Structures are given as structure tokens and as C-alpha cells.
Amino acid sequence: MNCNELQEHSRADCFLVKKPRALQWFYKGQLVKEKEEERQAGRFELFLDLLYVAIVANFSDELAEHPDGAHLAKYILIFAPAWHIWADLREIMNSYYTDDLLQRLVILWVMALLVLYANNANDADEDITAMRTTVGAYLVARFTTLNVFLVTSFAAYQHRTQARIMAGFMFVGLLITIPLFLEDISIRAKAAIVAVGIFYQEATWALTLSPWIKAKLHLTYSTAVDIAHEIDRMGAFFIIILGEFVYSIIVGNKTGIGLTSGYAKAVCTLIIAFVLNWVYSSGDGSIQATHPIRRSAWTAFGFFLLHLPLSASFLIGGHIAAASTAIEEFEDGQRWLLGGGLGVGMFCLWIYGMLYRVEGECTLFMGQTTRISMRLIIAIILVVIPESHNHLNAESFMFVIMALFAFLLIWETIGGLSRTSKFFEPWTNRNPPPEEDDREGLAGE
């Protein structure tokens, strides 16, 4: 029994292990839900997110200490598998959430494996034991989630076909990683194997849940998602990434005592993270728009697939921005990681904004293309600025980047306003209404 059930005085299911069930599905193209209420992230999903705060900090810290191409490639190759495990659990919680004993233990088990994965991944390219431990932890974690899909397919007929296809694709994906255990294979070949595995996972996930496979197999019952829950979970992971901006400007008292140059750079980092949160939360920046998940199946897939490069790039840029508080000059590699990370992230946010369908666009100051195009322009500037402004010290460089994000916020805020918008809302009804005179009623009693 959870707290909500106690507070609502409803009778909880008296089972420690509940029957797996699909929470929503399509029947002959019509959406059907087991319950009509909208779901939000559960407490144990948020607990999982806490672990990812540490995982992403660990991965980005390693890259910040060694800002070169080899470590950038390693960062991408170890971040993506961790993302895939999180995405597996997101799918399970979205489609089959029961919050029973078994499901909670699955979360704990996978988290324990993630701890093992994260503590060995950074050394996987130098130590064969670390490589085998990292790959082993990943294999067992994915095999666990694979079995959740497979077992659920026997109990929930609504998702049966696609859940089994998903499990089959995942099993083949695990077989791809077996050569990573072999010591004789070079690290470059292993990196190529991991890259193939990442692409395979993204492609097969999209294929399994796509409208194409539903039509090809003539499925009467097929998978559906709880849109509110998916938006909530993806937004939560983006907040984890932004946490890397603000966490590192505090830990270790890097800014020094008083109003220092480090403090100024910390505030610049904070403003950048604040703007990113604003821009992401506003979608395409308009007053009213249709979310990509609600717009169509293909924009929904674009929304989901976009979050891997979006998160990975902003995590890089955010950590370098936060690290600037303790340094006077950027190394060349750090400058490129900062500009490139934020630039690629802004490019993803431009695509993200274009996936929305705007309602009543003609009433806004700027159309969607004009309004969102500033994200693309700033993305290009951020990518080239490490070369064009390599003479600037860390403080000046951070001020330039912060100014770009501040301008973007002003541009999109104004461009997304209605032409009839006012700056201030009138302060009406500031005083309580006059009370009715009840003296006549009292005299008549």
C-alpha cells in the first residue's frame, strides 16, 4: 500500500507481487487505458534518478580532466549504455507500473548493477578487468529488463507481440557485446563494437514501437504510452543534466571568499542552466502548442531519440562551464568541449522546438521558424567561438557565452508573446468586497 492509497481511503490490492499488466494500449487504432487518471513519476523512479546524478557527474568529471578526442569518444561510449538502461526502466514504469515488491526489487537490483558499471567504466579502456566488469554489469542489467518485457508478455496480451520482439532484439544486442570480454581484441575494435551496439539499440527500439511494424504485422492490440508520464520522465532526466551545471559550482568552494572572479563565472554558469531549463520547459516558446508526442508518432520518436545527444552534449558543456569557476584560463580542449557541447545541445533544442505544432501562430509576434531559428544561430556561434575567441580568458569567455543565452531568452520570450499581450496585469480586486448589512435580519429574529 502506498501513501496515496492511504490518503484517498481506497482499498489497496492485497498482493505483494501483482500480476503484470499493460496500463495503456491501442485496440484497432483506438487508445485504451486501464485507468483514466494521469500518472506522474513514482517515488522509486525519482530514487533511481538520484543515482544518475552521481553517474553523470562521474563520467563528465573524467572528460573534464582529460579534454581530448579519445576521452570524448570514451565518454560517449560509456554514457549511452547507461542511458539505455535508464530508458528500459522508463519504458517498464510507463507501460507496466505496478509498484509491487518484485518491481521495487528489480529497480534496486538494476541500481546495484549501475553502481558497479559506473565505478568501472572510466577505466575500461586501460584494464581488462574493468572492461569485463563494466560489460558484465551492463549485460546483467539489460538481461534483467529484457526478462521483464518477456515475462510481462505472457500476462499482458495487449503488448504481447511487441514486448517479445523487443526482448528478442535486446537479446541479440547483448550478443553483440560478447567480444568485449576478449583480451586479444584491440581497444579500437572494441570501441567500434560498442558504437555498433548503441546504434543497434536505438534503431531496434524505434522499429519495435513504430507504426510501420504495427501495420506490417496487422496488430489488433499494440503498445501505447502514457504521454504525461513520458514527458515528466524525460524532463526529469534533463533536470539531472542541468544539475551538473549547478552542483559543480558549489562543491569544493571553488569560487573562493567574497565577490571573486570565480563567483562571476559561477553566476554565468547558473544563468546558462536557468535559460536552458526555461527554453526546454517552454518547448517551442509559443503560448499554445501541441507536444511532439501528441502531434504524431514520428515526431514522438524524434522527441525520444533526440534526448540521448541532447543530454550527452549539455552534460559535457555544463561540467566544463562549472569547472571554469576554479581556473583562470581554459585549455584548448576544454574550450572546444564547452563550445561544442553547448552548441550541439542547442542544435538539438532547435530540432526539439521544431517538432512542436503551434496553435494560433498568426497571433504571435514571431512565427515558429523565425522564433526558433535563433537556437540554430547560437548553436553555430557556440561551435565556432572556441576558435574565434581563443584569446579570451575563462572569465571573459564565460561572459560571452552567458550573453548569448541571455539574448536567446529575451528573443524567444518576446517572439512567443501574443500581439495583444500587456506587460503588467491590472491590480484589480485588491480589496475585499463590502459585507452585506445583516442588521435588519438580526432585528427580525
Can you characterise this structure?
Keywords: Membrane, Transmembrane, Transmembrane helix. It holds the Pfam family LtrA. This is Low temperature requirement A. InterPro entries: Low_temperature_requirement_A. The protein is mainly alpha-helical and about 450 residues long. It has two domains: about 20-225, no CATH class; about 260-415, no CATH class. The protein is about 65% helix and about 5% strand. It contains 16 helices and five strands. It has helices spanning about 5, 45-65, 70-95, 100-120, 130-155, 160-175, 185-210, 210-215, 225-245, 260-280, 290-295, 295-325, 330-355, 370-390, 395-415, 440-445, and strands at about 25, 30-35, 220-225, 290, 355-360. The strands form two sheets. The protein has a three-stranded antiparallel beta sheet with strand order 2-1-3. A two-stranded antiparallel ribbon has the order 4-5. A hairpin with a 2-residue loop joins β1 (about 25) and β2 (about 30-35). α14 (about 370-390) runs antiparallel to α15 (about 395-415). It is globular, with a radius of gyration of 25 Å. The termini are far apart. Residues about 1-10 have low confidence and may be disordered.
Short description:
With 445 residues, the protein is mostly helical. It contains 16 helices and 5 strands. The strands form 2 sheets. A 3-stranded antiparallel beta sheet has the order 2-1-3. It has a two-stranded antiparallel sheet with strand order 4-5.
Topology:
Elements: H1 3-7, E1 24-27, E2 30-33, H2 43-65, H3 69-96, H4 101-121, H5 128-155, H6 160-176, H7 187-209, H8 211-216, E3 221-223, H9 227-247, H10 261-282, E4 289-290, H11 292-295, H12 297-323, H13 332-354, E5 357-358, H14 368-388, H15 394-415, H16 439-443
Antiparallel strand pairs: 1-2, 1-3, 4-5
